[in-house]
Amino acid sequence: MRRILKIALLFVVGASFTVPAAWGQQSASSGKRERGYIREGNKLYNDKRYPEAEVAYRKALQENEYSEVAMYNLASALIRQASLAAGAEDGQQNNPAVEAQKIFTDLAANAADIKLAENSLYNLGNMAFNQEQYEQSIDMYKRALRKNPDNDKARENLRLAQLKLEEQQNQDQNQDQDQQDDQNQDQQNDQNQDQQQNQDQNKDQNQDQNQDENQDQQNQDQQQNQDQQQNQDQERKDDKNGISDRNAEQILKAMENEENATRRKIEARRTQEEKKNASKKKTDKPW
Questions:
Q1: Domains of the chain: which residue ranges?
Q2: Which of 79, 88, 247, 258 has the greatest number of beta carbons closer than 10 A?
Q3: Under CATH, which architecture does the 21-162 domain have?
Q4: pTM score, two decimals?
């Protein structure tokens, strides 16, 4: 399984950032409580008691809703309580990572302290990187470097994100090529299958035609055999019952021929006798 590289976020320890005058005046007692809650939250954060640190930072914001340090450290505590990748993939609005990202985005755009804005951009870049959103992380690192060109960590992570983006694009390209190859292979398989089906169909048609021809020939032979058998059966039946019609006809024809021959003999004999009698009468006549 491919290991996903994780980049740590920055955390601001301390509460030396002041609130701009334009945001309103804060009483000394309220400011003291704010700083106290921030120090308490930082201690809990360093002890990895992130939910308790979150509570302390929220108390600081109740004392001063414009406290950029409390906002920043609250977002850091929220990040520690959430899986960055899962929060982005699931899209859960109540996921701590979602609220942390919103706070960093607001600070990056509106923070009066340039260092907090720079660190917020840097952390947004890390969050995007850890979610494998490399184009977005590159943009955040570049914006952080515009605020502080000496931010070596941002420059180092920028280069790393560019390499990961290139790797990701190559993987996508390879996947697209593999998908295209699979589609071409599937198309070739379909063509081969269609060709084989056509060949099988033609073969079946030829077999059916040959079977029909063989069946016709068999029917003809069977019919001839049946006719011949019927003739033989009829002849045997005639032999059993007496003279067959064919034999009777042949016998009658022979008798008729014999009668004709006898008649011709009788007529020839009669003619000879008549000639003889006529000749005798001529010789007996006196001179």
A1: 21-162, 243-276
A2: 79
A3: Alpha Horseshoe (1.25)
A4: 0.56
